[in-house]
């Protein structure tokens, strides 16, 4: 089964790469134009903007999820009352589809129906929270919505790591008078490296796949202010009937992912081997 899946992925990659080297429009063609599609792709202002947006989104999304997920894990690890219910509440958003998340946050952030509208109806006439309709801030609304959804997953991963730390470590830290925050930063976080690396990889995959939430919340707008590569590819594949250009964009996105994730996974496996040895 695994070999079949791997074979399907490899064949799909090879077919997409071949199409990206052709002049295909509506249907794939057998001609060869070299790197012409890639040259057109990187002269496309919309594609360059989508890459820029994705880089900003990735930085904010991954950092916020890791920090918030870690804080939630630390909070729950204090043996708080109702721990099971809290874990469920924090993890539940991850069970929702990105489309549902996008629609919910679109309503929440809508200037007329959401937070701004409610605040003004309560008498705060000067209150403004219209990020979702402003080009310079719309991307941050996508970050807010997706962090809300994904931080619970990070919490679950890091909480399992925290529960695996020997209780004797905390006793020793108390005896030595080491502040708790220092223990977390200097000792606990390095010990959570396997969980953190797993969380990073999962979050990075979510970044690259970002599509549903953007379409549900903003349709890539206002204008192209929240355009992302996955939406660019889908628009050119189906909306603009340019299979060759969409294939070239897909290959570029895949190679970018491999260039970042492969060394990270290799370093993680080497670290695990050393710790195991």
Automatic annotation (TrEMBL):
Q: Which Pfam families match?
A: BPD_transp_1 (PF00528)
CDD domains in the cross-refs: TM_PBP2
Query: What is the protein named?
Result: ABC transporter permease subunit
Tagged with keyword Membrane: yes
Q: Where in the cell is it found?
A: Cell membrane
The record's similarity note reads:
Belongs to the binding-protein-dependent transport system permease family.
ABC transmembrane type-1 domain mapped to chain residues = 51-264
- Keywords noted in UniProt: Cell membrane, Membrane, Transmembrane, Transmembrane helix, Transport
In the UniProt record, which is one GO cellular component term? plasma membrane
- What residue intervals traverse the membrane? 54-76, 88-108, 138-162, 183-208, 243-266
PROSITE patterns per the UniProt record, alphabetical: ABC_TM1
Domain of life here?
Answer: Bacteria
| GO biological process per UniProt | transmembrane transport
Q: How does it sit in the membrane?
A: Multi-pass membrane protein
